[in-house]
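Feature request, filed as a ticket because there's no other form

It would be nice if the structure record came with a short human-readable summary line next to the tokens. Right now we just get the raw output. Example of a typical job, pasted below so the devs can see what we mean:
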Amino acid sequence: MNITKQLNFFKILLTACLLLPSTLNSHALKEAIQSTERSPEYVLRDQFRNPYETLTFFGIEPDMSVIELSPGGGWYTEILANYIHKPGRLIAAHYNPKSERAYFRRSRAAYDKKLASSEMYKHVEVVDLYEELAQPNSIDAAITFRNLHNWLGPNMDTIFANTFKALKPGGIFGVVEHRANKGTTMEVMKSSGYVSEEHAIKIANKHGFKLIARSEINANPKDTKDYKDGVWTLPPSLRLKDVDRDKYLAIGESDRMTLLFKKPIE
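Raw output as currently delivered:
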């Protein structure tokens, strides 16, 4: 092998070595979802929550700045904290730890305890859900999962407005929510835990967002949405406990809308 060929060979080898860490990166989405650091009981719900398909549909990349709105117990945080890394940024918008509501304080304390349990979460930033989420026009994406029913009314306006403000022009807002039938009244939405697509889109449009795509990734046609105890009749809540338990387990988790909005560039 002559000198030129040797040099070319070593250039190719060096390039391959430099590329290797990124192609085998532990922050790949599928690997983050398959991580042994995830809670086993959370993994069981992948069949209903479809995290790979959902985050891919939303276009979430590991180097993006992302706000997870109202992360609850951290189901998605377990995936996102592993997946998003520098120069990416993960912000969890949770309840104020000094809230007047005891449930909010307990929920936030449990989430803080989770973040303190592993080095994986050391870069997660936590902010108040109802205050400024980040510097204006600084965030690539905001996402929320099954939370709109908790925000119906003024809180939904506040959170949507703050989200729009935090996003960069062209930034995306991904929403997954229990889906009510078209024409469902506000009273029924509040009592059932299901929210109509029309209402979600109306509030998003009100605050400047534009719907750019929707998906049936998280749809469940077996969900009849006519239960006395609303969406909480179905798993994982199973509010009726042993009453018709097998019936509700066979239905599975709720039928869900999956909507993708964008903050216009202009």
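Something like this underneath would help us a lot:
The first strand starts at residue 65 and ends at 69.
Residues 27-262 form a domain with the Rossmann fold fold (CATH 3.40.50.150).
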